Amino acid sequence: MAGIKALISLSFGGAIGLMFLMLGCALPVYDKYWPLFLLFFYILSPIPYCISRRVVDDTDSASNACKELAIFLTTGIVISAFGLPIVFARAEVIAWGACALVLTGNVVIFATIMGFFLVFGSNDDFSWQQW
Fold first, then answer.
1. What is its main location (predicted)?
2. CA proximity to 49, closest of 130, 131, 128
3. Each residue's pLDDT expressed in tens, for the chain with a length of 131 residues
């Protein structure tokens, strides 16, 4: 039953994060939809780690180059997702209030993605690999 509660809380977190992103785009004060490009970063961020988990054998306790590269690429994607709204706001493409809403959404979405891998990432009876 703990897995169902975790799944519901993760879906709630994802919905809240997307709500902040949409508020940063669709409020009549801001009315610019450029921050929706962050959806690509949300989709791309877990891909390197998922690929490295399929390729790498976890029996080795030492550091692995493939896993380190995946963490590096994921970190670059996450930092780019935080940098893009700031660049948009500095270039006056979006307002600073919209930037704040989008950055809040980023924090919530990436915390939800990290929580997903913490809850469902282990190879026990209740893991995401069953889906």
1. membrane
2. 128
3. 457 888 899 999 999 999 999 999 999 999 899 999 999 999 999 999 888 888 876 666 666 888 889 999 999 999 999 999 999 999 999 999 999 999 999 999 999 999 988 887 765 555 555 45
